[in-house]
Amino acid sequence: MFKTPFLTILVFLLLFSGETLIAGKMEVLTNRNLTVYFDSQVRSAAKEVAEMYLKIKAELESTFGWSLPLNPSVVLINNSRRFEMMAESPLTVAYAVPNRNLVVIDLTKIRNNPFSLENTLKHEICHLLLHHHIKNQNLPRWLDEGVCQWVSHGISDIIMNPKQSFLSKAAAREKFIPLSSLQRGFPRDKGPLLLAYEESKSFLDYITGRFGRDGLLNALGFMKKGEDEYAAFHRAFNLTLNSLENDWHESLKKKMSWLAQVSFYLYEILFGLMALIAVYAFIKVLLKRRAYMEAEE
Q1: What is the pLDDT of residue 262?
Q2: For the chain, does the N or the C end have fewer beta carbons within 10 angstroms?
Q3: Which numeric CATH code is attached to 1-133?
């Protein structure tokens, strides 16, 4: 997740607008590779970040074949309320500000949820890498988030419930969010936001499953050279992005078992059954009344 200009300004007003805030509430750990700002209670986490950065940098450079000549700043927040003042959603665990080479992580959510600090940091540094090599206007949000989830073993910027899949419901009801609607940003409401993240990850899984890792890297390589996602995907896969999106939708619908599809319509089915029972009971009472009246006559 990366910030809108307004939120970016807010972040820096809160974190870097004056030396008092940094000196009073945050400590600094710096080396030639990155700078870590952290609350004094989480010094051990700051040291972990400093130690793991070179490994993450090497892995990303190896995966993409691109250099990462950045010296990012990583801010570790140990106060969920303070973090939520800066985040787009209360579900947010971490976010990146590519134009500032900045990553901000909420350590309280990392501790209370099944997140790995290393994979979360890798996800956010991946955002910085992509935006360093691909122009913002050529990098749609769904692809940015999908790629970063792909390299970080499914870790996203937000808290996802593994027991609840909005994507499965969308597939059962054929109500996907079109990728074209996820170009510049994601929805803010919880359900659509979670669906947008699930779609981004699922579509990238479909692309890499069908064309392999090299296919995806070829498409990203064309985007690095200045092409938008439509031209890059067509050149890399010899298929339009729209046709790939339709094929992906069909693959999701085929994976849905009939039992799973029925379960998503459970309320509608129960409502229909109750209506039929009510009609049946009404007709039965009406027939009994008519039979009684005939018997009286």
Answers
A1: 47
A2: C
A3: 3.40.30.160
